Amino acid sequence: MAYTEQAHQLIDQFGRRVDYIRLSITDRCDFRCVYCMSEDMSFLPREEVLTLEECARLVKVFVALGVSKVRITGGEPLVRKNALSLFEEIGHLPGLKELVMTTNGSQLEHFAQPLKQAGLSRINISVDSLDPERFRKITRVGDLSKVLRGIEAAQAAGFANIKLNTVLMRGINDDEAIPLVDFAIAQGLDIAFIEEMPLGAVDHQRDSTYVSNQATLKLLQGHFPLISSAESTGGPAKYWRVAHANTRIGFISPHSHNFCEACNRVRITCKGELYLCLGQEDRVDLMPLLRAYPNDDTPLIEAILASMRVKPKGHDFDLQRQAPAVIRFMSQTGG
Asked: What is the pLDDT of residues 153-193, one digit of tens each?
């Protein structure tokens, strides 16, 4: 089916153009990060998860509707069997300017080179500590050395603008902001600090571990020559450049700086749920349409276009609430 007549129609009720989707291809992960999921997670049965063919079909439809950036997430996307085939299928789609991925880095040592060949543009790697014991405590099971080898493999494969993602938590790893930036500078990496989000019931009170990005920025300004930047990678991060270095420091601040006014993205879970906002429950179930109309994208397109009319203005996270703002875990929505 030709989509040219549908292109660039993803405009929500507030006039914001949606040109970026984040697609989770699995809720499974080989880590159990304390801010992301519970220690004893129950994962979806296979039949309730999008097939890789369905994932590719969704990407093709969204790109035809004007989406130019696609981020593949999880869980950990590279633990999905045959995940590489999806990247190979969509990596060179006409109209797709950026195919990017968020990963914990545990599998990159083996996949970095073929991912680059498949058309992956950039990689974000979650690293919350440079201390092996602390890293294992935060991830519950993670091996820091594997992640560091994964970063080396991504660099060797030729990926540029590799970005570290870090969640600082008071009393856990908030003393590592400066060492992490030092590491990023030494390695020629970017780094983004992400305020912990109240998604899913975890084993700690988030208001007791919350570290604002305002505080982190003030700390870093006392140690590094930072220059404010208007650069954007298409997401919510606000960037500062480190003078005389190739490193950018980003801040994603859903609490201290609501970034909803320029929201250009939606998320699709591995169940095919189209979430119009990370911090709200508004969603459209796309899996039934994918399976009921395997050879006709028209119902799918109509549902996606209609969803723009219910995309909310923004989220409203409140750390003082006893219950999480959203019940689903971050790993279920897509990291």
From this structure: 999 999 999 999 999 999 999 999 999 999 999 999 999 99
Edge-to-edge strands, sheet with 98-103 = 226-228, 238-242, 248-252, 190-194, 163-166, 122-126, 98-103, 69-73, 20-24, 265-268, 273-275, 283-285
pLDDT at 319 over 70: no
Longest dimension (CA), the chain: 58
| CB 248, CB 261: distance < 8 Å | no
Residue 35, amino acid:
Y
Cβ distance 118 to 84 under 8 Å? yes
β-strand partners of 274: 268, 284
- Amino acid identity of residue 238, one-letter, is K
User: Hey, what are 188's tokens?
Assistant: 């020629």
Complete domains list, the chain, with CATH: 13-333 (3.20.20.70)
**What is the total residue count of the chain?**
335
